[in-house]
Each structure stands twice: as C-alpha cells, then as structure tokens.
Amino acid sequence: MPRDVTLHAVAEAAGVSLATASRALAGTGRVSAQTVATVRRAAAELGYRVDPIARALRAGSTRIVGMIVPVIGNPFFAQLVDAVEQRLHEEGFELLLADSHGELAEEARRLAVFDDRRVDGILAVPSDRRRSGPALAGAGSPVVQVDRTSEGSATDAVGVDNQVGMRLALEHVGDRGARTLTYVGADDVTSNGVERFEAFSGLIDRMPFEAYAPIRGEFSVASGAAAADELVGRGALPDAVVTASDLIAFGLVARLREHGVVIPRDVLVTGFDGIPFAEIFSPGLTTVAQPVDAIAADAIGFLLARMRGDDSPVRRSLLAPTLVVRGSTTRDDGPVGTARGRSGTRRER
C-alpha cells in the first residue's frame, strides 16, 4: 500500500540522503531544482505520501481551521461555510466542519474535538448568546465568532449590521405604502434574534407605522408557518410583515397562501439573509442580503492575525447589508398604501 512506502525508500530511489529528500518534499532548505524534481518524481513513482500528522508535529501547525455552526442544513450557514472554505484554501488551510445542532453539550464536545485535532484556529457560530461563551473561552486555539456572538468570550467577532438591515427593510415597505406592519422573528436565544428585534423596535418608534404585536419563535420555516396561522387568527392583516430571516419568510408566505392570502397583493413580506433560494421562491423574496464573502474574509483575516500572535484588543466587525427587491414587495397596481387609499410620508432621520 502507498502508506507503507517510507521516506528512506524515496531517498534511496532518488540517490540522495534522507535529509535531502525530506527538504525536497517539504520545499524547505537549500536544495537544487533538479534534485527537488528527482525526489518528487521518485516519490510519485513509489506512491509515497507525506504523513500530515508527522509534518504537523514538526512544523507546529496542522494547517487546519475548525468551524462550528448550529445547523448546517440552514442554507445561510451552508453559504457561509462555502465562502469560508474558499478563502481558507487561498491561504493554504483546510477546513474541519462540525454541526452543534444548536445543543450546548454537542457544541462543547465539538470544540473539544477541535482541540484534540490540534486545529490552528476556530471559527464559531455560537448556538446560545449567553451559554456558549464558556466553551468558546476555554478553546485551546484562537477563536473568532461569526454571524452571532456569545457573552463571556473575549474573542473577535464578525457579522452583519442588523440595525442597518432592519432600517433598509422598514424604509422599503414604507416607500411601498405600508402603514401597518408586524415583525416576525426569533426569540432571545441567539444574538441575531435579539439584535434584529431590538433594531426593529427602536426604529419603529421613529417611523410613521402602526406596529401590531410581534411574533417571535425560531429561525425556521416551521416558525414562519406558525406565525402565519397566528396572524390570520388575529383577524385584520397588516400591510407588511418584516421577518428576521429568509427561512421564516418562506414558511410565512407558504402558509399565508394556504389561507388564501396573496403575496404581495394583500401583504408585503421581507426576509433577511439573502440566501440563493430567495430568488427562485414564488414570489421572489425581497430580502436584506448579508455580504457573505466579506464576512468570511474579515473573519479569516482576524483569525490568521491571532494565529500569528496578534494580541491587540478584541475587535468586532459589523458589515453593511444590502436590500434585494423582488416580487414579495412589488405590486403591479402600485404600492399597497395607494391601493388601500392610504397616504403619508416617511420622516427623514
């Protein structure tokens, strides 16, 4: 088998010393190009493979970064992982991915596995804004929190500016004529669940809307569907529903359709995250799109700096999202306010 081929055999086949063969394969030391070519050709012919564990022990680096997410099945996290992996590949690192399933015990176990595998650094999307902190703080490698944050962990963090995102959504539905609206989001378990709700609550007081009681559950399709049932059960529907994630919006729109509500004729709906499915959903979902590539780049930049010994104060990078307007807020016969005979102008802030 190829793994049975030793470095000594490669050196012998190439006619060089063991030390020279090692330097030639590692690309270190003063070895002529001709010798490097000879050694590598011998290694290829014999089927020799470098032992990554032995190399890591010698170099003091595995060239592996661990990443833990709460739900890999969430399309946004899949999109984020893809951006991270591409960026790490450009930097010469491999990605070791783990799914915590949103469970604290599993999250702590996965972080311990990263330590056992001697990863060089960790990118973490915490499952809980309060209780994930101790496990992150106890990690044996530098940690950067991505998308979400958890208290009690003095680590760098990179995410989206939820305040800007909510303002974009609210101003958009206001421009479309909405004057009554409801917020449908997630509860207080995650930092994004809190920040997006607080952003909505703080902005709504300064804008010409009548806000109906919010509905808060989880970042899931099922939660959006349950919210639609509750909205219909209340009676009069709002002009617009601003949601805290695309998944929530998908569930909401699909269930409202079952109740006979037509989007956007009867209600305008916005999402948050900007996952690819939002474009092919029917109607196309207007959404606050996160700059995923930029988030990945900043997170990896912070992590590489810490891995190289940077001991500067903890940093948090909040990147501005953009609004992608699609069919869920675009009516053929004009803004919803016009159709219902409402008027009013949005106050400038």
TrEMBL record:
Gene Ontology molecular function terms on file: DNA binding
InterPro entries in UniProt: HTH_LacI, LacI/GalR-like_sensor, Lambda_DNA-bd_dom_sf, Peripla_BP_I
Region Disordered: start-end pairs: 329-349
Domain of life of the native organism: Bacteria
Database matches in Pfam families: LacI, Peripla_BP_3
Domain HTH lacI-type, chain residue ranges per copy: 5-59
Annotated keywords: DNA-binding, Transcription, Transcription regulation
Name of the protein this chain belongs to: LacI family DNA-binding transcriptional regulator
